[in-house]
Amino acid sequence: MLISKYSISLRKGISVFITSVILTTGVYAQKVKPYVENWESINKHQEAPEWFNDAKFGIYFHWGVYSVPGFSTWYPRNMFIPGMAEYNFHKEKYGDPAKFGYHDLVPLFKAENFNAQEWAQLFKDAGAQFAGPVAEHHDGFAMWDSKLTPWNAKDMGPKKDITGELEKAIRKLDMKFITTFHHERQLQRYVDKPNEEFSNKKNYEKFWESHFPFFKGMPTTSTDPKLRLLYGNIPEKEWLENQWFGKIKEVVDKYNPDILWFDGWLHMIPEAYRLKMAAYYLNHAKKKNQEVVIVRKQRDLPLEMSVDDLEKSRKNRLEAKTWMTDETIGIKDWSYTTNLQIKSLSDILHILIDVVSKNGVLLLNIAPTPSGDIPENQREVLLGVGKWLKTNGEAIYNTRPWYTYGEGPTKEPEGHFENREAFLKVKYSAKDVRYTTKTGVIYATLLGELGAGQEVILKSFAKDQLPKIERVRNVSFIGSDEKIKWSQTEKGLVIQAPAEAIKGLATTIKIQVQAMDEPYNIMKEPNKTAKENEG
Asked: Tens digits of per-residue pLDDT, 481-514?
């Protein structure tokens, strides 16, 4: 057989190409190693990717079987403890909890009006950049199509894959998807305690690491193969593998969440399983080419690989490291109650602006009804936030913190969840200013409405305060076309508000600096302490 020079050349070319691909693939495989189950490996994960730093605002919701009585989020626990308000309510409305247990409420959770597309559109209109469900609360009921427990929204109650329908609808509107897990407390950890200890109100927090009290004679102690899966009456090893880790793995495999958020109590989960969870999720994301986020709440994961979350509270200083706060629209409860009182639009909007100025991200909780409706007063707040963001969003999205978060007389308290009542009392005014930056721009958002022609002095622009000279070239008010009078003085940036007042709960001033100057960004100098200007 005759072989031409062309054929030989072609074969050599193919051989070289294949060898090159094999070598390149081998090098790539060496570079992109999978995460292994130790902190040294997992801590290499970039805990806050750029999209998360850009997003600033997300929405989730407490919604499930516990919404049915319309009484409190802690209903599943407290309904079994004599003397608690939930116990008395349950006994009067449904009967003795020993005979009509939490599992008997499941058929009453019908979600007949739930519409994933409508919910997703509302979240989008509110300005959220990510959204999703409480996948499972402390109560053992999975809000997805689960093969690991019969107590799931597809097989019982709504008979719908709530998580699956939402995931599709949320992604269709170009939002990221979050799932939150609270099921660390589901396991029965106090099976050897006598009833008298559980019934003593003084011991309420003594048995806090388990959601359902192990009252003998109550359904919570049942060994029925089906009931025990709901009430967590399972050997710990089996529970850890099939219920704690297994459920997270199932949600990750089925719905590919961009954010995996944990409601604390991870210290009750053995370290080996925390490592197993993190490695599995991060490797799964790598295969899907996803940049994902793991959020922790109670110092139970390393901050090298997770984002810190503060419940119903927030930082009172600027942080170089991205953080999150989960805040609820309800003043007290997280889930729907028949007399739910909610925070005002101004409170929610000001919390968002304050959080973002300090390098935080707001995760806002809402409380749908058991029928799957989002109450009108909650909708009004969400749409009010969205309306403000539609005009002023450039001062929120894709921004980074300046050298100071702001100035003004109002100061947030120290602390975390334990100071939630103090945080509720914080009220801002137009004297409180919050800053954010982008290349060539510094935004100053006043947490109130300015009067027509009112003079404002931004003290953070005083020369003795600035870490670098910010040469201002123009000042304008978002929402106004008026030419603004301003001057940069030793005392700060002096600005005269438009002659026609800008109506709204927060007023944004756009300060453009010289194009050659990139505004100071504390994230680029994480070892520096942010300045705080009060006045």
From this structure: 999 999 999 999 999 999 999 999 999 999 999 8
DSSP structure string for 8-72? HHHHHHHHHHHHHHHHHHHHHHHHSPPP-SSHHHHTTS-SS-HHHHHH-EEEEE--SGGGTT-S-
Residues 46-64: tens digit of each pLDDT: 999 999 999 999 999 999 9
SS (H, E, C) 388-457: HHHHHHHHCCCCECCCCCEECCCCCCCCCHHHHHHHHCCCCCCCCEEEEEECCEEEEEECCCCCCCCEEE
Instruction: Calculate the alpha carbon distances from 358 to 145, 313, 401, 432, 531 in Å.
Output: 38, 13, 6, 14, 11
Taking residues 110-126, report their average pLDDT: 98
At residue 418's C-alpha, the angle toward residues 412 and 419, to 5°, is 25
- Give the C-alpha separation, 94 to 108, whole Å: 12
Residue 294 three-state SS: strand
CA 507 to chain centre: 26
Q: What is the DSSP-derived secondary structure letter of residue 140?
A: S
Average pLDDT of the residues of the chain: 91
The residue with tokens 């106004």 is 480
Cα–Cα distance for residue pair 160/158, rounded to 1 Å: 5
Query: First and final CA of the chain: distance in angstroms?
Result: 93
Tell me phi and psi for residue 315, to 5 degrees.
-70, 150
User: How sure is the predictor about 98, in pLDDT bands with cuts at 50, 70 and 90?
Assistant: very high
| 315: its two tokens | 């930082």
Question: Which structure tokens are listed for 322?
Answer: 């991205």
With a cut of 70, say whether residue 522 has pLDDT above it.
Answer: no
CB 335 within 8 A of CB 73: yes
| pLDDT for 278 beyond 60 | yes
> In this structure, how many other beta carbons lie within 10 angstroms of the beta carbon of residue 451?
9
Q: Are 61 and 131 in contact (CB under 8 A)?
A: no
pLDDT interval class at 520 (50, 70, 90): low
pLDDT at 149: 98
Separate counts of helices (H) and strands (E) for the chain: 15, 17
Neighbours of 234 (CB within 10 A): 18
Amino acid at the residue 115: N
Question: Cα–Cα distance between 65 and 70 in angstroms, integer?
Answer: 10
The whole-model pTM stands at 0.91
pLDDT digit string (tens) for 450-468?
A: 999 999 999 999 988 888 8
Residue scoring higher pLDDT (289 or 204): 289
The closest of 52, 29, 49, 6 to 397, measured between CA atoms, is 52
Q: Is the model's pLDDT at 5 over the cut of 70? A: no
Tell me the longest C-alpha to C-alpha distance in the chain.
Answer: 97
Bridge partners, 142 (sequence order):
136, 152
Q: Which H or E element spans position 279?
A: helix 271-287
For 142-270, where are the alpha helices, taking DSSP H only?
Answer: 162-172, 195-199, 227-231, 236-238, 246-255
